Amino acid sequence: MRVALATQAAPGRPNEDFAGATPGAAVLLDGVGTPTGSDSGCTHGVPWYVQALGSTLLAGMNQSEGSLTEVLADGIKAVASMHDFVCDLSHPGSPSGTVVMLRRTANAIDWLVLADSVLVLDVIGAAEPMVICDDREAQVGERYRKAMDALAADTVEHVAAHRAYVETLRDHRNRDGGFWVAAVDPLAADQALTGTVPAESVRAAALLSDGASRLVDRFELITWRQALDLLDESGPDELIRRVREAEASDLDGARWPRGKTFDDATAIHWTFS
Fold first, then answer.
1. Whole-model pTM?
2. What kind of architecture, by CATH, is found in domain 2-271?
3. Which of 74, 125, 140, 214 has the fewest CB atoms within 10 Å, counting from its CB?
4. For residue 196, what are the β-bridge partners?
């Protein structure tokens, strides 16, 4: 068994991703950033939130025999209590994040995915890997991103359009018909995608923030199978290097329209056999 992990902040910004692993569990969070000019109601910020929740979840997966949904709900509740009465947890911009959780026991691998980070399972004997991503945010966002995508990245106009886009999405966050992320309401855990596979059926797993998965799902420069092969051969650092290379080749977003020219990128590669 081997775990390799790499994370890299977008240039000039604090890292709002979190990744951690133990011999029996791994967790990855991608914090939902607060655009310049927007308020969050929280004095701590997104990096604090993902670090607090990520470490809480990792401990919970190792200490509890409950379901991953229960561990996530308890974790959200515990972190909310850390800054309740200090921050405005009712604010629509209160720090939040995507969640990928993976727990391996002697006989099974349990997984949970909430929001748009990606879990890729390399299933033994399958031609294509099993890819799990909760795309509800992307479905909602498709209605509102046209104006932002039409503008050159990092211009004053694009920055304003990105802020408007993020603030519009807040109205759909953690609501029926919208999308769900980890924030302050433990009931969001019930909306996560979950599953269990036999431990002997999976050779390896990759947990990817959307800043790392964009090499496949946004830029379409490699396939999921090629991403797993790259992680096997060269590790997460090389995957992130290739993401940065692609981002730098399209600074104005003409080829790949996106809210962030560069995004925090984090990858965990867990090889079981």
1. 0.96
2. 4-Layer Sandwich (3.60)
3. 125
4. 110
